[in-house]
Amino acid sequence: MTNGQIKLKNITRNLACFGVSIHGADAETHDSITRLPGSFKRAIDTAKTYVQEDHDVRIIPVVMGRNYDHMYRIAELAWEIGAHAIYYDVYEPGGIGEKNAKNIDLNLQPTPGQLRDAITQILKAKDDFPFRGSIGFGTAVPFCFDHRLIERGMQAACGAGTWFCAISSTGELRVCNQSKSVFGNVLNERMDAIWTSPELDSCFRDLSWVDEPCASCPVLDECGGGCKVDEGCESGEFCIDRIVRGLPEEVKLKLEKGDLRRFHDLSPPSHSRVLQKSRFLRVIDQYRSSGDVFFKTRYQTVRIGRREEAMLRSIEATAGPFDEAAFVQSFKNGGAAAELRKFVSVLVKTGAVEVII
Question: What pTM was estimated for this model as a whole?
Fold first, then answer.
């Protein structure tokens, strides 16, 4: 993540991506937010340079009260730059943001109406600009806030303390980078010991602090109540997202688990794909003695069994493109062709392999 004010040189191609913050579609808006004249031009030039160097570049705007009407045009700008993806954050009054959120003159927190307007622009951008990567949210948005996010499969859940955490430069583990609560230090304790500690379970994960309308929602576990970290809430540091607190009954949207669309369709296409391994693909077996083998890609690490390891090892050994049909045939004795093709789709979605045709 970078504000793009310093152009880094000789960065390894193994870097997962650059996230460049651009908060306005023009210099006047962006520079007024950063309070740094010339910062817009420098950020744009830096993003363009990283694209030209063939890095994966994603643009990261923050939706605020003062720039909510720029979201479509920022996406258009990201498309013109050649960015791989664009992910929108929403200004939240947590962490250091709590102090500035109280300054009315800064107009940082978007109102519910402004956020819905921003979502309208984001959905139009998704239709108009076919980025190689995704258009979506980096900040959790309560599923019930806007039904269009469910309909378009763009729901963004809060993984704080469940599948996400933040570790400071001094080793302190927090459930989120905006959280002030520290649950341990990875320089002094094992990561798994901190992650499975009763303190973290009782303080955060039992959700006893969750209020309505989220407390009785059937999809609370999937949604998480939006962004949970907010030092301004009455119950303490953690509470449901401010944009759904106190919603009137007529605008509450109760969802069922069946309403939630899968984030990824793993159905294989009708044709046999031609694929190549990602340069990020590695099989990690250094923890085999404890029963764990993984494959690593650009953004994630996935636990696998022996059969999957054999398939991944064969892909690792390929020097160029390979045919899906031949790959499935070579491992057909280990399972049905349909399941093997679905596994290939998993590899595509996780970025372990890339589709050529």
Answer: 0.84
